């Protein structure tokens, strides 16, 4: 299945195979999203899901702990390094 990922900051949409890590997609299609550790330690990759939250793999415990510290008020925030894309999404770098 092919899915669309729209990067709001870069005003571009890429189409990729579903079930890829967002890190891999961003490596293949450079965007404004930056990565540091890639392992739920730094928080560099914080993104806001504008639409399609249901098309990402669920938040696991380790990510939840960091999200509760970095973005406790916003349920639309994810760590891009922990997301596997299963359907269309629109994303942007979190403030
Ligand atoms: S890149 Fe460090 S938490 Fe995602």
UniProtKB/TrEMBL annotation:
Pfam families: Fer2 (PF00111). GO terms for molecular function: iron-sulfur cluster binding. Residues 1-95 form the 2Fe-2S ferredoxin-type domain. This is (2Fe-2S)-binding protein.
């Amino acid at each position: 299945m092919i899915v669309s990922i729209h990067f709001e900051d870069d005003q571009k949409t890429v189409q990729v195979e579903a079930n890829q890590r967002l890190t891999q997609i961003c490596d293949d299609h450079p965007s404004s999203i930056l990565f540091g550790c890639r392992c739920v330690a730094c928080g560099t990759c914080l993104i806001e899901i504008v639409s399609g939250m249901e098309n990402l793999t669920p938040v696991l415990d380790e990510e939840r702990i960091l999200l509760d510290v970095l973005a406790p008020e916003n349920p639309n925030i994810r760590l891009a390094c922990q997301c596997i894309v299963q359907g269309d999404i629109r994303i942007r770098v979190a403030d």
